[in-house]
Amino acid sequence: MIVQVDPGSPVPVFEQLREQVERLVASGALAPGSRLPTIRHLAADLGLARGTVQRVYDELARDGWVRTAGRHGTVVAERLPAPPDADALPRAADRLALVARQLKLDPRDVHAALDAALARTGGAPA
Q1: How far apart are CA 55 and CA 5, in angstroms?
Q2: Partners of 76 in the beta sheet?
Q3: How many CB atoms lie within 10 A of CB 5?
Q4: What is the DSSP letter of 72?
Q5: What's the mean pLDDT in 1-8?
Q6: End-to-end CA, the chain
Q7: Mean per-residue pLDDT for 16-40?
Q8: How confident is the model at residue 84 (pLDDT cuts 50, 70, 90)?
Q9: Contacts of 86 (CB under 8 A, 6+ apart)
Q10: Apex 120 CA angle, 119 and 126, nearest 5
Q11: Rounded Cα–Cα distance for residues 37 and 48 (Å)
């Protein structure tokens, strides 16, 4: 599982991590039954407190994205929550716009960065 957090972002690291895991599951990049890294391992890799990762995993489990499997760790749920509502993309765009505005970024640079990110992740041609 490849996730990253940016401690300098105005978006809390908890939200960054949660949203990334949800997207990986929703996109199928993490298939049902896939094991997630242990809390200790992921916290160490990302430089986060274990409690932060625990909270993310707990909320993902509460919302049906993952399930805890005792000694076998945390795995992607077999039956996922309903697909995102129609407002999911506009809300994500609003968050991106807010971050860009807070960082006083030029809108052209934001568009270029988004296009590059989409190209890197296979979401759109470069």
Answers
A1: 15
A2: 66
A3: 18
A4: G
A5: 89
A6: 24
A7: 93
A8: low
A9: none
A10: 25
A11: 14
| Structure tokens that stand for 120 in this block | 């890197």
Task: Decide if pLDDT at 31 tops 80.
Answer: yes
Q: How far apart are CA 69 and CA 112, in angstroms?
A: 42
Q: What are 7's two structure tokens?
A: 């401690």
Q: Which residue has the tokens 């979401």?
A: 123
Distance CA 120, CA 50 (A): 30
pLDDT band at 111 (very low <50, low <70, confident <90, very high): very high
Both tokens of 49, joined, read 């407190």
Cα angle, residue 105 at apex, residues 102 and 109 outer, rounded to 5°: 145
Structure tokens at 40: 């200790």
Contact (Cβ atoms closer than 8 angstroms) between residue 30 and residue 23: no
What is the Cα 34 distance to its own chain's centre? Answer: 16
